[in-house]
Specification:
Blueprint lengths: L13 E4 L12 E4 L18 E3 L4 E2 L6 H7 L7 H7 L25 H5 L9 H5 L3 H5 L13 E4 L2 E3 L13 H6 L8 H4 L5 H4 L1 H9 L18 H4 L48 H6 L11 H5 L15 H5 L3 E4 L6 E5 L9 E2 L5 E2 L21 H22 L16 H7 L15 H12 L31 H19 L9 H4 L8
Antiparallel strand pairs: 1-2, 3-4, 5-6, 7-8, 9-10
Helix pairs in contact: 14-17, 16-17
Length: 523
């Protein structure tokens, strides 16, 4: 057992002979405590890095005291980094820096540990790879301990250094390269600095609020904003979940790793406070719960909410199926390996450049729908593209029934087309004011439209009223694909409610039953 290795230094040799006890069937026992050094002195040039105390059993010097962290670490890929490199068939000397303990991943400078000595005690990515040299802490624990750095310092463009970034970038595993181009790597200081927002927008607050992490690390007491870095979602000390994640990707609930943050506000308040519109509601749409305004008396409100295939057992990885897609990029002519894309831009149907890597800005025809085939919903990328186009067209038609921004100024006003401008044009009717304490049918329809808006109808996401009052949802509806059938039902019910409440007419007949495809059920 692991505990047998923990022999504390400085303890005198003691022989305790158990006697004076008569136990039938037992013999005298002798418990012996032996003194031994906790670690071997590190070789010259190692710069106080200790490495393994027992290399064969992968037992680190740090693990003599931090047994919990040691046990968790043993289950990670870091613990087999050296062996994995050697077994890869392509091991080269320049690869060894990311498969051993050295100056990468911690504050040390210059060659240390493996790169300075070549000693096998520094094989694998051990505790000191992230925490730095441990000798000073072992010799005097009360003087402090080396703390891992969870921040990622960007030094220019898409280049980064410190912590995980020093190894987890480049052609074979460009996690940080792609993360820097993602929203997780570019949280806004405004949201991250607000108490009501930082639990999802700031790394330190997210660790505490989302995952109940109460640990010491270099930035824990800093006032500086920290991005949603690798260590926020991944636990380097090991986890019961895949990829050392702090929560499950498969759990179809708010305990899901992604849904924990992407489930903030999908339904409006009954009074004031709706001027900012829906926010971070994507997970709620996928799960089919607490998303959208249910018009009183509607069929949807009586029966329940529509369950999306994307949130069912047919899609076991939920968000990650489409948003974290790994694929190997090779040269089209030679078949030579170019780069391993790891899906950490977190973009579904991404734009791909000539090199096969995700890039910003492209037309729909250039987007890659291959990820949509991974959840059991779509047989081919082309089938997924067709379903996407159909969904977007249907939603756009319904959105235009509520409001067609005819002059393109993103201002909802009586001169525009659609039901809501017609309501505003009625004399004495003040039904569209998101700043007052009354929540109206017209404002409920606006809320549903904001959840469903698409890139072709962006005025729903950043519109204002004639008096200058702003209302708008944060972008991220996913063009309706998070739950297309629920969104169609919400918009249709909204159109019917506006017509009935205000006596205005839509240009086409809308029927919630007609909009519900076969096989889609209410719960």
């Amino acid at each position: 057992m692991r505990a047998a290795r923990h022999v504390w230094p400085g303890m005198a040799l003691v022989a305790l002979f158990l006697s004076g006890m008569v136990l039938v069937g037992c013999t005298d026992e002798e418990i012996v405590f032996r003194d031994r050094p906790l670690f071997d002195d590190p070789p010259s040039g190692a710069a106080a890095f200790l490495g393994y105390s027992d290399q064969d059993d992968k037992f680190t010097v740090c693990g003599n005291c931090h047994i919990g962290s040691q046990s968790g670490w043993e289950t990670t890929g870091h613990a087999d980094a050296w062996e994995g490199l050697q077994a890869s068939g392509s091991a080269q000397e320049f690869c060894e820096g990311c498969h051993t303990v050295n100056e990468l991943g911690n504050p040390a400078e210059g060659e240390v540990a493996w790169t300075a000595t070549g000693d096998e005690r520094y094989h694998d990515v051990q505790c000191e790879s992230c925490h730095g040299p441990g000798q000073g802490h072992v010799e005097n624990p009360e003087a402090g301990q080396p703390l891992a750095n969870l921040s990622i310092k960007q030094v220019g463009g898409l280049e980064a250094e410190t912590g995980c970034a020093e190894c987890h970038q480049g052609t074979h595993h460009p996690f940080v390269d792609q993360w820097l181009a993602s929203a997780h790597g570019n949280v806004t200081s405004f949201a991250a600095g607000r108490a009501g927002c930082n639990s999802c927008h700031e790394g330190k607050a997210a660790l505490a609020a989302q995952f109940n992490v109460d640990a010491e690390y270099a930035e824990v007491d800093d006032s500086e904003v920290m991005q949603i870095t690798c260590g926020v979602c991944h636990d380097p000390h090991g986890s019961q979940f895949s990829a050392n994640l702090r929560a499950s990707l498969e759990e179809p609930s708010r305990e899901n790793l992604c849904v924990g943050c992407h489930a903030r506000q999908g339904t409006p308040n009954t009074g004031s406070g709706n001027e900012h519109g829906p926010h971070a509601y994507q997970g709620l749409l996928v799960l089919g719960e607490d998303a959208g305004w249910i018009p009183p008396g509607s069929d949807l409100g009586q029966v329940g909410q529509i369950v999306s295939t994307h949130g069912s057992e047919a899609n076991p990885r939920l968000c990650a199926t489409c948003h974290v897609v790994e694929n190997e990029i090779t040269d089209a002519e030679t078949g030579e390996f170019l780069v391993q894309s790891v899906g950490h831009t977190f973009e579904a149907i991404p734009c791909l450049g000539d090199d096969g890597l995700p890039r910003e800005g492209c037309t729909l025809d250039e987007r890659n729908f291959q990820a949509c085939t991974g959840g059991g919903c779509h047989g081919t990328a082309q089938a997924a593209r067709s379903a996407f186009l159909t969904t977007r067209t249907r939603l756009n038609n319904l959105l235009d029934e509520l409001w067609a921004d005819t002059d393109g100024d993103h201002v909802l006003e009586p001169s525009d087309g659609g039901l809501l401008p017609a309501v505003m044009a009625q004399e004495g009717v003040e039904e569209v004011n998101v700043l007052d304490s009354q929540f109206t049918t017209a404002e409920g329809a606006i809320w549903n439209a904001q959840i469903a808006y698409t890139s072709q109808r962006t005025h729903w996401g950043d519109a204002s009223l004639p008096n200058g009052d702003h209302f708008g949802a944060h972008k991220g509806s996913g063009e309706g694909v998070h739950n297309p059938f629920l969104l169609e039902a919400l918009l249709t019910a909204s159109i019917n409610a506006v017509e009935n409440e205000y006596g205005v007419s839509a240009s086409v007949s809308t029927d919630i039953q007609a909009q519900r495809p076969p096989g889609v059920h209410l719960r």
